[in-house]
Each structure stands twice: as structure tokens, then as C-alpha cells.
Amino acid sequence: MTVSILSRFAAHGGRQLVARHTSRATGTEMTFAIFLPPQADSGPCPVVWYLSGLTCTHANVMEKGEYRKAAAEAGLIVVCPDTSPRGEGVADDEAYDLGQGAGFYVDATQKPWATHFRMKTYIEVELPEVVAANFPVDLDRQGIFGHSMGGHGALTIALRNPSRFRSLSAFAPIVAPSQVPWGQKAFPAYIGPDPAKWRRHDAVALIEDGARFPEILVDQGEADTFLADQLKPELLARACSDAGIGLTLRMQPGYDHSYYFISTFMPDHIAWHARRLAA
Ligand SMILES: N[C@@H](CCC(=O)N[C@@H](CSC=O)C(=O)NCC(=O)O)C(=O)O
């Protein structure tokens, strides 16, 4: 459960750290970023988990997501994990949307991925234990959010574990991976060809199958080049409407899929979580 601190910077009265530890879930070293607001010097703080998208490490949102000012003001700890196991002995693919950097937050059952690609267990079980053992987090007050593949991760993890999280939001999430090319490529590779096995890893399918979360915030850029083919927020809107889930879906004119979009709406997402994680 010990972590090595790789870097430490003062920011907004708090501290931005990068930590590394040996993961029993993935069997590799795993790196995550953690922001501790000034309030963490005085006692446990609520924690928000941010899951990143395809090609990302912990560093993309840390460097471009601009979450620290709002998180410091709200007293939120923000944890930003990597998107997959990595290293020389870890399976990979030449494409950007499979293998290292593209873990899809599932536990792979198929060769060659099953050996290390266990991001579901890592995020759902191991990382909370590691963070709680080393940092002043209040695990009774947890929220989760993410971007694109990480939005898919946030939605599916919260829908499968609604009692763990008090708040959920996403930027441009993949809402129905079973119905779009990214998921239709990754899911057979990681969890096999049977679409029935994909449903526990698909937010729209989870809702159709009875999973519930009280309310969800989603921001989606209208100029996002992945919108029509890969993201399809209308599928989440329909599923939430049918299920009585309170979805706030904000279509944002002019915004694309990048961290310029994410950083623009990051303060709104931090505020969404802070309101629901207040004591
Ligand atoms: N064509 C790009 C695709 C990679 C990309 O756009 N990745 C996004 C997430 S997409 C869904 O999960 C991202 O967050 N990129 C990192 C960034 O800092 O912008 C490529 O080939 O890289």
C-alpha cells in the first residue's frame, strides 16, 4: 500500500503530487496524480476521481484540465489515474484505441490482455484502498467524472456502484460503447465476442438493465468530431428519460473534444461535485 511520490508542486494553497505504486490488480507499477487542497492539511476531504480518455496518462488532465483553483476553493481532493497498465512486458497494439493508453476500465478476459489489463478492479477496488492508506480522503464523500473513454468509465463505474458515489459527471463520454466503433473494437479484444458480456461495461445497456444513479451532468461539444460516430449522447438522454434518471445534458456550441473544451467547463463540474459532497 506504500506509494512513492515522484513530484510535488505547491498550487492554489494546496499540493499537486504525482505518486507511483505497485499494483496487485495490474501486476505493474501504476502512476496517478493527486491534488490535495489546503483543507487537507486540517483533516479528511471529499474525493473526486477523474478518469481520462484514449491516449492519456495521469498527466493530460493534470497539465491541461485546470481543476486546481476550483478544487482548492471547494476543498476537494482530485485523483487522476492512468488509463491502462504500461511497460515493456505489457501487451500493446499499434493503434491508439487499443492496448496501452486504452484500458476502457474493464478487466480483460482475453489473451494477450488478461494478464495486466484489469482497470475495473484497479479503479473500483485497489486505487481507493491505496489512496485512503496514504492521503486524507473521506471515502464517505466520493464523486467520479471523466472524459470520453474516461466518461464511459465514470458512468459505468458509478452505475454499477451507486452507493459508493454521491456525484457523477462527464465530458463528452462514450455512452454506449457496444454501439460505436471504439467499443466494438475494444470489447471483443478485451472481454470476448459475446455482446451479452459487454452490457455491464456500457452505460446505456446498464440503465436498460436496471442500473440507476440519481442525477448526472454531461457536457458535450457540438463541434466534437467524434460526436456523431462515437459519442451519441442522444442514446444516454433516451435511456435516462425512460429510466427517470435526472440527466443534465448541455450541448456546447463551438466546442470540440479537446482539453480546451474540458478546461472551460471544469469549474462547473467541480462545483457540481462539491455541492453534492458537502458535509
Ligand atoms: N486521433 C487522436 C485520438 C486521441 C484523442 O483524441 N484522445 C482524447 C480522448 S478520446 C476518447 O477517449 C484525449 O483526451 N487526448 C489527449 C489530449 O491531451 O487531448 C490521436 O490519434 O491521438
Automatic annotation (TrEMBL):
Keywords linked to the UniProt accession: Hydrolase, Serine esterase
Family: Belongs to the esterase D family.
Gene3D superfamilies for the chain: alpha/beta hydrolase (3.40.50.1820)
GO BP annotations listed: formaldehyde catabolic process
Domain of life where this protein originates: Bacteria
Function per UniProt: Serine hydrolase involved in the detoxification of formaldehyde.
Enzyme class, broadest EC rank: hydrolase
UniProt lineage: Bacteria, Pseudomonadati, Pseudomonadota, Alphaproteobacteria, Hyphomicrobiales
NCBIfam families assigned: fghA_ester_D
Gene transcribed to yield this protein: fghA
EC annotation from Swiss-Prot or TrEMBL: 3.1.2.12
A GO cellular component entry from the record: cytosol
GO MF entry, a single one: S-formylglutathione hydrolase activity
InterPro entries in the cross-refs: AB_hydrolase_fold, Esterase-like, S-formylglutathione_hydrol
SUPFAM superfamilies: alpha/beta-Hydrolases
Active site: 148 (charge relay system), 224 (charge relay system), 257 (charge relay system)
Stated name of the protein: S-formylglutathione hydrolase
Reaction catalyzed: S-formylglutathione + H2O = formate + glutathione + H(+)
